[in-house]
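This section describes the prediction task in plain terms. A model, or a person checking by hand, is given the sequence of a single protein chain and must write out its three-dimensional structure as a string of tokens. No templates, partner chains or ligands are provided. The sample shown here is typical of the held-out split.
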Amino acid sequence: MIDLTITQALEKLKKREISATELTRAYLDRIEKFGKDLNCYITVTPERALADAAAADARYATDSALALDGLPIGMKDLFATRGIRTTAASRMLENFIPEYESTISQKFIDSGTVLLGKTNLDEFAMGTFSKTSYFGAPVNPWQMEKRLTAGGSSGGATSAIASGLAIGGTGTDTGGSIRFPASITGLVGMKPTYGICSRWGCVAFASSLDTPGPIARTVDDAAALLAVMAGHDPKESTSARTEDINVSATVPALVPKTLRIGVIKEFADVEISADMKKAFDARIADLKSMGAEIVEVSIPNILDALAAYYIIAPAEASSNLARYDGMKYGLRVDGADLIDTYKKTRAAGFGDEVKRRMIIGTAVLSSESYDVYFMQAARVRRMIADSFRDAFEKCDLIVCPSASGTALPLDSDLSPLEYYALDLFTVAMNLAGVPACSVPAGMAENGLPLGLQVVGPRFADMRVLGLAKLIETAAALDNRPTKIMGK
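The expected answer:
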């Protein structure tokens, strides 16, 4: 049962071939069996899940089912869930229980989903391997004995979905935090156009970059989740206008011979694995054989995106995380006076990577550095966005790698800068605010999955998914959980 995709499960639920309770119990049993070893959940909610499932079964019995009724999902532990612990994988919020529901999690409640629990992540979404989590890193279920990374920051979600501990789930993407983990776990991860999915009630990292999005096993599944997540939110100041949001649960059938597919010139000299190059070339050849026109496009400043990102994101993080001072909520470590309490609380509550980024962010926002660093990064960001706009005058969609290769071991001895460099293929899309989807594109010789990224103009999310589906079909990667884990 856990090998069913979202579309398959919905069909069986509607035909009453299975019940939501049976489906939910299958996932809860698998969480009980593999959850501890994979460490993909921070909080599991079996009572809530079974109650949600019973409510879904009652609606199916009266032919009043909702859009995603009875589907067991994982919610990234950045989204506030009323009455359920929301930690952002940090000691600072280890015991925080919100009294409100995020817009995204409320949308899933309104669509009838079953909440299995809150998935693991990097602390405050800052990281690449989910190793900065206060609760330990999730494990990639592919070749589980090797203890490979499931990516970050949405590594808990990708670990859970790839292993069959959730049928789908939510992530957030600030610089690749959906697409990179999806790529190395053989999943579909969608970073929508900035603004079409509300950030209200989502713990903030970098507000101008954070983008909630779906993670699933297939492109059709991702579209079904995105259709529920997207929509204007009057509570969120950067929410896109209703008329700009053209998202549906049905992926459009693109006609390849009418497509102009862009390949980014500046990525040609970036080092990627031989397996990734082979998969990229194979999928481009597939598209060309279908009749698509392949054109070279230039994003002149795209290799500067990493530097700009690691100035802008820490700057916004230093501002967003200033609220955690032990006064209103979260951890509090009492000191000799108010200032000492602030210092001790923040020293104990935040991990090393979060502290590093806050220090960088505070430094680049200082009066001495603001013009030299932050404003220069903002100018680079503007140039990158303009370059994408110009590129899409020459092509309809862009295809590029999601990562340089396959999953690395969790104990890889990388420096902070080497970890940051893993975001090279993904950060520019966040700076530009354009939609991008990582889709399984093949297998490496080591038996691990590889992902390619489809990028489109702002609000062309459904066209991005349409091309991703063509690539998915051509690659034909088998990502059934029982196939991945062998059990």
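For orientation: The chain has one domain: 6-257+395-485.
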